[in-house]
Amino acid sequence: MSISSSYASNRLTNQNISTFSGPEARRSQNTSTAFSYASDRLISQNISSPSVSEVSPSLELISLPQPSSNLELPLIDYNAAEIVVDGIPVSINRGFLAENNSFFREIFKKDGSPSYLLSNLLPFGKVGYEAFQFFLSYLYTGELNPPPLEVSTCFDEECAHEACRPAIDFTVDLMYASSIFNLPELVVHFQGRLVNFADKAYVEDVIPILLAAFHCQSDELVNQCVGRIARSEAVEPLHEKAIRKIHKALDWDDIELVKLLLWESNVTLDDANSLHYAVAYCDSKVVRELLHLGFTDVNRRNSQGYTPLHIAAMRREPSIIVSLLIKGASASVLTFDGRSARSICRRLTSIKNYNDKTEQGQVTNEDQLCIDILETEMRRNPMADDASITSQDAVDDTFDFKLWLKL
């Protein structure tokens, strides 16, 4: 029996065990894995099986390189190598991965270099550093560990983290890794999690799930996401042709053309939700020029209940958030489902991203800056129904948001 066949057996056994199983299930899984590894090594060496207490393979033993079981394949360099993920080198056991994973076996057959860039190996999608480490841990141990909280939970302490954006993004990364690295049992597992997310997530957070479903050829997940998005779509607006022209002019950063189109038609900036569009897709300079025209309601809701500030919080661009606040955008306005711009921003930001160190010379990172700006505005104009912010915390109305940024 080869190690690769043993791993296949282990993963099939573990497939029906929940990622977050209890202590008894975990001990049973570990014992099964240990027996399988030990049995393979002992059979190959014609040594009689030891007692249960003697079977305790370490990660070092499991990771030892083994000669290829397929003599028809070209020989693979079994020396150690590294894969660079998000700029961080990750040491790998080339022989172990080649023996136990068909994707890496083909990579190492073609290229025996000591270092690889993960982004160059992926045909689609993205796999971050933490997701790649999670994947390697599964290959080396045969176990699914709980996801790291710092990248799979958001910065909002009130969130249940059942479908917040960091949880979705991390699972999408794992879906890409499982599909690309040819681990069908993990594809089924993470597809199930994403199906659950698609039902609970805000519609704007379903898009990355849909893209992953398309690339990984998961028809069930594609249908789930399309149905979820379709239920939220608004009816086509009036004056659609004129509105599209205004949006195109904004894409070209041409405010003068926008003014000409407004003069030629009966459409207003608010009819076209021009500020919403610019905040979502345009440069911060275009947003400021549009605000300078003074023809738009800075707190207008679109058909989905979002104000421009809500969309700016989704984009997490500090300069746009500040521009809107200076022009009178209200941070206390809630979406139809009860979210403020601050809560939107917090639920899009993972704990890791909020606490990330910044480059030398920067005061803070942009994710942290967006949250801090919105929280300052909430203290300046506190909501009556938000017990966490009291009038005693309010700062003077003359607070100048330009102190945050050079606009």
Automatic annotation (TrEMBL):
Gene3D superfamilies: Ankyrin repeat-containing domain (1.25.40.20), Potassium Channel Kv1.1, Chain A (3.30.710.10). InterPro entries: Ankyrin_rpt, Ankyrin_rpt-contain_sf, BTB/POZ_dom, NPR, NPR1/NIM1-like_C, SKP1/BTB/POZ_sf, Znf_C2HC_NPR-type. Keywords: ANK repeat, Metal-binding, Plant defense, Zinc, Zinc-finger. ANK repeats lie at residues 304-336. Residues 151-165 form the C2HC NPR-type domain. PROSITE patterns: ANK_REP_REGION, ANK_REPEAT, BTB, ZF_C2HC_NPR. It comes from the Eukaryota. One of its GO terms (cellular component) is nucleus. It holds the Pfam family BTB. One of its GO terms (biological process) is defense response to bacterium. Residues 79-148 form the BTB domain. Pathway: Protein modification; protein ubiquitination. GO terms for molecular function: zinc ion binding. Belongs to the plant 'ANKYRIN-BTB/POZ' family. 'NPR1-like' subfamily. This is BTB domain-containing protein.
